[in-house]
Specification:
- The relative contact order is 0.07.
- It contains four helices and no strands.
- With 80 residues, the chain is an all-alpha fold.
- The longest helix has 29 residues.
- It is elongated.
- The chain has one domain.
- The chain starts with a helix and ends in a 5-residue tail after the last helix.
Amino acid sequence: MLPLVAPGLVANPRVRVHLRLNEFIFALTFLGTIRKSTLPIYVTYFSTAAATVDWGSIMASSTLFNAPGPVPSSSSFRAA
């Protein structure tokens, strides 16, 4: 079973990174204010002018941003 699934396991993360990067560049280009920004753009504001980064806030927001993916698929399974 694993030899059949292996190409999908390699391709899926690459496609997800590509889509996230496209969303980031699109939002960064067309949205001017922080009030209208999407989550990936908002995360860039966690770094300050002194080049310090609040890694805890970045990791927490990244977790919230990526968590909704498995939730709907796991809730669709019913116990037998």
